[in-house]
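Annotators were shown the component list below and the corresponding predicted structure, then asked to write short factual statements about the assembly.
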Amino acid sequence: MKDAFGLPQSLLVLGGTSGIALATARRLIARRTRTVWLAGRPSPALESAAAELRTLGADVHTVPFDALDPESHETVLGKVFTEGDVDTVLLAFGVLGDQANDERDPAAAVRVAQTNYTGAVSAGLVAARALQTQGHGSLVVLSSVAGERARRSNFIYGSSKAGLDAFAQGLGDALHGTGVHVMVVRPGFVRTKMTAGLAEAPLATTPEAVATAVELGLRRRSETVWVPGVLRVVMSALRHAPRGLFRRLPI
Amino acid sequence: MLAETTTENVSVTGWGRTAPSVGRLVRPRTYAEAVTAVRDCGPRGGIPRGLGRAYGDAAQNAGGAVIDLTGLDRIHVIDAADGSVLCDAGVSLHRLMEVLLPLGWFVPVTPGTRYVTVGGAIGADIHGKNHHVSGSFARHVLSFELLTADGTIRTVEQGTDLFDATAGGLGLTGVVLTARIRLQPVGTSLMSVDTERAADLDDLMARLTAGDHRYRYSVAWIDLLARGAATGRAVLTRGEHAPLDALPARARRAPLAFRPSRLPTAPAFLPSGLLTRTTVALFNDLWYRSAPRARTGELQSLSAFFHPLDGVPHWNRVYGRDGFVQYQFVVGHGQEDTLRRIVGRVSARRCPSFLAVLKRFGDADPGWLSFPRPGWTLALDIPAGLPGLGAFLDELDEQVATAGGRVYLAKDSRLRPELLTAMYPRLDDFRALRAELDPRGVFVSDLARRLNFQESP
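Structure shown to annotators:
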């Protein structure tokens, strides 16, 4: 169960090798979290992530999970929920893709969309129903500022996050009053292995900063969290910028 | 439709308004309906609930049944000669006072609010300002009827294991349906109160130690925002039920009248952050300075002396949507250093707490999970939104546990489960009894899940 400060005792991470998710898990383990399920494609990286979290004192299990195989989500995630209450589900899987390449290769672009959006729709609904049966819990969805307004440089990724973001907001409204809390997290440019080698955007942040914001959001039962917070204002301005101007902005 | 059991999914929190969860609210109106409610709990079990004054998550059950007992509220037998009452568990102490005071009887133990039910008083084994004389509530309960997980109703007498597991057992042994309670005789419905100020914590502890035995009721309010030499300054109020001859002629005409005052309800929506260090410090300073240095024999109404906050319905709303946590711990005699250290830490950290209460407990009672034990108990309310509060209270827990003390589970909403067995050494007995009495784990609460009550020893 969560405590008075919204801190979970058990955590299910969908996308168990995500840098942001692991930073969040580390932070929550330092507080109250004792049980962690890391769901992801079986790999040495997933196992070593689990091993690292174990050294922090948590009871960590790995769960084979593939975002691109929605048919399996019910079974795989259902098993986790039968083992005990899950206080927080962190939906953190996603791929950035390679915009230039994906524009030329529609099949690759579809994979980005299927992972980030279709996979999340399926896993999000499965998790939401299980949380609703429990009568409590948080679903934290890692969206992105890229979904707030599609940019020329990464609109395939951005559009998938836009879909995910809209889905998560609607899910949050649907679950209002059921005891389940849905929180959409919109980080800006985060320095992780996903963005390694890319030119850094302004207001770049770290996985640790996202983790801090997630903890605060859980405490406040926030519905939307921007990291860093100033992006709320920046993106609001960008969202309303006229198309012609937006196109010419150096972003 | 009045006779029908009502059922609906509702978001439930404790009085501190933190960590809501959704359960199915069932409100039985007969014992038979209560039996049905327990039998039909479903896979996520059920937990009895009274008037929701437990601060944390003791009376909520996410995804399961929350069995609201306030529909069972009959007073069956009052023995006005002998001083005992047999009543349903859903009867509030407020109702008992209304009925019993005109007959010259008072509840044996009352906490800081009248709005707790008899069932809740047993489940939390509540204590009051008279603990040093009268012990906790269960000491005055002669027997009760308990509806257990198998759907049977058992009569439980004082001195049995089931009685001691249920007293303070947070509703996890079953649903108390009725209780027989021994009462306290009173000559009037007024209190004769002595007030004095203590300059600092040591002064306060000396005054409590030297004088408590002369009073039935004793409590101290501490200003935890005072620093330096004034750390722990306090207003000490102690009293007795006023005898008839202490009353002025006008009051003697209706010496047993019970007329609690009532102020306007706190509005439903208040911003968080009304209670800041500055506002609370100002309030505390005013409160301290307006208290008399020393005054004896002041006549106060029962409600003003025991339940000043009950005058403001929904006062818990002033903490805004973040809610608040109440932190109450006890450390034994000889552990005064731990108490001093904690008071120092809270003062240094400038926690905006305007309800900080220190009291000296008397002998403990046999309830396995009962909170009181001989020593010092400090209770404070803190806004839950205060940054870093969780980690800070964890540190205090460590000090309390190291000193052999414990925190009060009926008020808890954030204890680390690892510390529970250190604080409650009879927890394993409790778990063993529950494993036998309720093998399927029908009775369960958010608190029980959070603190791993199910875990076998």
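Statements collected:
1. Chain B has a mean pLDDT of 94.
2. The CA atoms of residues 46 and 444 of chain B lie 6 Å apart.
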